[in-house]
Amino acid sequence: MIAVDENVKVLTNQQGEPVRFSWRNGSYQVTSRPERWFSRKPWWLEASRAQRGIGSEVLEVEMWRITAAKGVNSPSEFELLHSNDRWQLVRIFG
Amino acid sequence: MSFTHLNVSSAYSFHFGTAKPEKLTQAAASFGQDALAITDMNGLYGAVKHIGSCLDKNISPIVGVRLEVQNRGIVTILAKGHNKGTGWAALCKIVSKAQSKSKKEIAITEKDLSELIATDGKPNCTILLGPDSDFGRAVIDSNATVSAKKLLAWQELIPVSECLSVEIVSHLTEPGTNYSTLQAKRMLQLAITLGVRAVITNAVRYLEPDDALTGDVLDAARHLEPLGIFTPQPNAQAWLKPESLMNKLAVEITQSQELAATLMKNTEELANSLRLDPVSDCDWSRPKTPEKSALGIEGNPFEVLWQKAHAGISWRYPNLSDNKLLPVRHRLHQELITINKLGFATYFLTVADVAQMIRDMRIRTAARGSGAGSLTNYLLGISGVDPIEHDLLFERFLSTERSSLPDIDIDVESARRHDIYRAIFKRYGGNRVTLLSMQSTYRGRGAVRDGGLALGFEEDQIDEIAKSIWRFSARNFRGMLGQKPELQKLAQQLEHDRRLNLLVDVTERLDRLPRHISMHPCGVILGNENLLSLTPVEPSGLGLPMSQFDKDDMDPMGMLKLDILGVRMQSSMAYAIREIERVSGEVIDLDSIARDDKETFRQIRTTNTLGVFQIESPGQRELTGKHQPTEFNDLTIQISLFRPGPMKGNMIAPYLDGRHGFVKPDLIHPDLAPILTSTQGVVIFHEQVLKILNVMTGCSLAKADELRRTLEKDRGFVEKFFRQNATKRGYSKAVVDRIWSVLEGFGSFGFCKAHGAAFALPTYQSAWLKTHYPTEFLAGLFTHDPGMYPKRLLLSEARRLGVKILPLDVNKSKDEYLVEKTIDGTGIRMALTDLHGISNSEITRIIKQAPFIDLADFYLRATPSRVTVKRLALVGALDELAGGSNDHTRGDVLERVRQLTALKTKPKLDQNQPMLDFEAKEQMPSGFAPISATGQIQAELDLLGMDITDHQLAKYQPMLDQMGVVRSNELVGLRSKTDVLIAGVRVATQSPPMRSGKRVVFITLDDGTGCSDATFFDEAQARSSAVLFNTKLILISGKTRRTGVKGVSIMAENAWDLNQLWQEYRQKNQLVAVEN
């Protein structure tokens, strides 16, 4: 597993699922059904407020586990973080 | 089809759930769901509230528990419904069984579970195997074969298929982890393969995603570790999702519309079998009392009650003529008819039986509350005040208009309360009795502490913030920051401190959440032999089982709760009476002393009521000065007046004005004169409202009490009824308007006179003892510490009364404050228990081995620790062993103790070898310096917490004299509005609710000559914010304000720390070098 922390451009379908992303001059095509999951953040280290009603965004973050391939290369597993229209590539699995 | 949540932890899953049952049911109802489960961790703590609120919302209640099964992980167990309570009973028993081993390890064994579930093959409960069960964990940690074995093992343990389901949950966590969709998929697959029904839930722990933050903080409180140290919850998905989202989850997990529909349908079918019928399943709201056999009665309970009550007439009214007995009999019959109509005869017999048992144990008791308004209670010996003499109404207590079980509260000696509990368990049997529990909730300080812990604050910093939270709801912590002077510093820090901002936010989140369960301070539940099938129990701190239901759950469950309240004053009085008898042989029956003793009322009127029940607080002392009570009824009135309601409603001033003849009382209408004369035209009591409604509208007193209760909820209805009927009976519009404005304003102001009268009895009794037996009375106060003031203030009071205080002496002191005969009367011997750090076993040894010949003998036989013997020497408890102050100084004693404790090994008593060091008195060193007066007082304060030989203020006297500080006993001689300085030790700080809604702080100081009370309004609070709540020795500047014939208080302007002034004074006078 390789940890990455870079912004990527992502193209999504109507359901909001990633179908393609570009990273470091390469374009990656999603090859299987992406899996959405939710991770969390240590809000006590970074948030400035935590009042009632502030919303779970302070704590929670949307993640996508996808299988994608660049061109004809064999596909790899990637993990994208999605927050406020911003996409980040965070992990690449073997 | 609708969806039902079957796994919901409410806020009663302590330190886990975040939502109260009523919020959850409201949300479920608004989603259109027609049933909802509550499944709290380890208990049915929120179950009754859940059922009640489901009934309100017209949805079906489902109840279960999240519980650990030994070696099998955590599962959810739900009761099946509509089976005449067999499901509910099984659930109660499973919980009780799991709780019965130890507080630390709450779990049910497989064997117990299999025995309690599906007894006789009938499905009474169902188990959900979710992600936290061994099966759920296995699908993540192991391969399919191992996982299948786990599920098979469950099928073997619970062979009835109706009783076992697999619970499919996805919190959309990281793929392959617990609560992930992958885990759900695998569990579903195996459930299908092995033919176990699968249902879907969301394992809910909060209402909305936002509550997840609160959840994090609760997790920290549960782990007792700051966030970041333990593994936190994976995300914020455990909320009460609506059906549409649950459906979407089902599709996501199954990847098939068809399978998803089956999953949803299974869930609904199971939910239907779990719907409870509160009445037939939980015996909802039907009153339950012990069976006749348990009460030792035969025949018709009502006939037995009739006989017992009538037998009480000749006991309570021994000398009354037949003529005068007529109204007594008439009233009793009225009451008994009502009791019979309601079917409460057994209830009264039960309470009477308990009261009799307590009396037989020779323990002092008194009734409290509206129950004192019942003649039946008086005749059965449950209450001690005569409702006819004091004009108390039965209808306020009980009427045919209401059917809930009434509350009868019994006050007993606090020191004997646990004995009484045990006796009740023994008398009625452990199957019919449990203790009541109490949910404590987060309030300001606790919320700050746990919030601070979660955020990793230093303890010191949290302490400081917690201390500044004084009498306001933490729910609005941020709003208060700008308003309270003592929070000013914190408000400034907030502007640039991120963590502090978070602390304020999480404190607000925690406020009012249930925190833990503990034993209720006075409640005992008495039921029939079915009790343990209706409530789960767990061990209490006392060792006796305690119900998981609290007092609010009693009425809905139809359970009889007896409040047996330990009152320290009753213990103190019992102690005083015992000491009087022990020392002088005089036997006193406190309950039969005349209640019009002139000397007692004269003593009360001096306002020196310290230690007297209910009227010793600064505010009550001030009111006593203004009121000048002369008879028992005055005490009832005064106790009832000194409440937030009457104060807010401005009822005190008109009453006092009328009483002292400043104004002629306005009785409004001649018909009301008999009702209002005794209270100067002011409506103080609920009973007066009842009578006014009765006279003016012609309704019955019972109906009048219903109207009084409705007044708060539906004022319009009562107004219409009152106006119509009073007008019909010929009262003019002017009179009707006037009275309505009184009744309307009465709302929350009034007080139940029966309760006031019941309280006035111990007030009078304690004042009587203080007047006639001050030494014994104070000894009782010292021993049982009933009041609001520290012990050292009692010492001041003893000095003032001329009661002799005998210092600690290892040959004479015990673990109680004994009254001792002296050459010139009696005195109170200080007790060993006050010495800091002395252990119970040391005290026991000293008492057992006394008397001692000399210091060595004491050291040898009492075997105190080195620290204790030194401390005893420092406070003079060993002086007498050295022959008293004539032979040797305190310095000599200390030197001798130094010699003894310097020995490397403690000498043993049974050593045969002669030990020269311990031979005789002549080895006492001599010539060491005596202790200074200041040193003596300091030692007493440090080691006993009391200044015994002199008041601690004495040290500052030169400075105080120079400043012109006035002593407390001189205040009464000053004119109103004189500028004064007062100084003293803080003995009380109060901030009662005021009419204006603004905060007022009362500080009471003691300076050795008595107490003085200072009042701080807004500006003075701002000026003195640094010392307002925490400084012990204070100097206050202000103006005198006369509050009555004997009353003066200080309108404070500013306050200072006395010790700080002292430092400056010493520096100025260059006394620093001289003093030490």
Set out the fold topology.
The complex is a heterodimer of chains A (94) and B (1076).
Chain A: E1 2-7, E2 9-12, E3 18-23, E4 26-30, E5 35-40, H1 43-46, E6 60-70, E7 76-83, E8 86-93
Chain B: H1 21-30, E1 35-41, H2 47-57, E2 60-69, E3 73-79, H3 86-99, H4 110-116, E4 125-129, H5 134-141, H6 144-157, E5 164-168, H7 181-194, E6 197-200, H8 212-223, H9 243-254, H10 257-274, H11 278-282, H12 292-295, H13 301-316, H14 322-342, H15 345-360, E7 365-368, H16 375-379, E8 409-413, H17 417-428, E9 433-441, H18 444-454, H19 459-468, H20 477-481, H21 488-494, H22 498-510, E10 514-526, H23 531-534, E11 537-539, E12 545-547, H24 551-557, E13 560-567, H25 568-584, H26 598-605, H27 618-627, H28 632-641, H29 644-648, H30 652-659, H31 673-676, H32 686-697, H33 701-713, H34 715-728, H35 733-746, H36 753-772, H37 774-784, H38 791-801, E14 804-806, E15 819-822, E16 825-829, H39 840-849, H40 855-861, H41 866-874, H42 884-887, H43 890-902, H44 933-944, H45 957-963, E17 979-990, E18 1001-1006, E19 1011-1016, H46 1018-1023, E20 1033-1042, E21 1048-1057, H47 1058-1068, H48 1072-1075
Parallel strand pairs in B: 1-2, 4-5, 5-6, 8-13, 14-16, 19-21
Antiparallel strand pairs in B: 2-3, 3-4, 7-8, 9-10, 10-13, 11-12, 15-16, 17-18, 17-20, 18-19, 20-21
Helix pairs in contact in B: 1-2, 5-6, 5-7, 6-7, 8-18, 9-10, 13-14, 13-15, 18-19, 18-22, 25-36, 25-37, 26-36, 28-36, 32-33, 33-34, 34-35, 36-37, 37-38, 41-43
Q: What does this entry look like structurally?
A:
The complex is a heterodimer of chains A (94) and B (1076). Chain A is mainly beta and 94 residues long. Chain A has one domain. Chain A is 4% helix and 57% strand. In chain A, strands 1, 2, 3, 4, 5, 6, 7 and 8 form an eight-stranded antiparallel β-sheet that branches. Chain A starts with a strand and ends with a strand. Chain B has six domains: 21-275, Metal-dependent hydrolases (TIM Barrel), CATH 3.20.20; 292-439 and 518-569, no CATH class; 443-512; 570-762, no CATH class; 786-944, no CATH class; 952-1075, OB fold (Dihydrolipoamide Acetyltransferase, E2P), CATH 2.40.50. In chain B, helix 5 (134-141) runs antiparallel to helix 6 and helix 34 runs antiparallel to helix 35. By secondary structure, chain B is of the alpha/beta class. Helix content of chain B is 46%, strand content 13%. Chain B contains 48 helices and 21 strands. In chain B, strand 20 (1033-1042) and strand 21 (1048-1057) form a beta hairpin. In chain B, the strands form five sheets. Chain B has a six-stranded mixed β-sheet, with helices on both faces. A five-stranded mixed β-sheet of chain B has the order 7-8-13-10-9. A five-stranded mixed beta barrel of chain B has the order 17-18-19-21-20. The chains are: A mainly beta (94), B alpha/beta (1076). Chains A and B meet through strand 5, helix 1 and strand 6 of A and helix 8 and helix 22 of B.
